[in-house]
Design brief:
globular; single chain; mainly alpha
Amino acid sequence: MSTPVAGVVPLAGLLLRQTLAEIRIRRRIPAFSAVNLALPVVFYAFFGLPVAQRTFADGRSVGAHVLASFGAYAVGSVMVYAFGIGVANERAMRIDLLLRATPLPPAVHLVYSCISLALLIGFGVLVGGVHQPVGVWLSVALRLLAGSLPFIGLGFLIGYRYGPNAAPAVANLIYLPMSFASGLFMPLDQLPGFVRAVAPWLPSYHYAQLAWNALGAPTERLAVSVLWLAGYAVLFLGLALRTYRREEDRKFG
């Protein structure tokens, strides 16, 4: 009788199957799929299409500027809702314990971010007639993906602090007003004075600067945006870790 030989499961195949499984889970959560994939396109249809062919005084495309704004909204919302609602649901179903023993691929959230950006930019180009060099769109996308860490931390904080029923409402109550107040839906100079005063203190404001800067807008320096986002990433991830440890102590203490 031959002796069984221990085998090693290919890591790449395992990660691919788990990523596909996570995508199916997220797809079955209407609040997640609708908010992250459909809403940015709907918002751009309302706010962006009417001004898609206009230009600023310096010749920049207004349509591209608004498209970058909703790109920032789209990627940030993927991170907040994916980690917030996803973690809250996994905690409720007790599968968070199982996932600790598996190489949970964070790539699943990057996949959704890329899909959301592709849908939004494709809509702006095909329907709104907004055109920029491919390199510009790639720069916008890479900046938004790289700068999304604060929103991952915010999502984790919401997911570990609230249950599956409350997490979507809390995420909406935090992320939507923050996006409005940062000038993602309309220019800051059209917002009330107290909102303009608060905007520079919000992570979404500095996040949008990354995208606007890639289009040549006269925004704050790139290093300033990066420092603000890094600070918020440390803050939110630190609070999320503290909340996570409290839950661990409650479960196993």
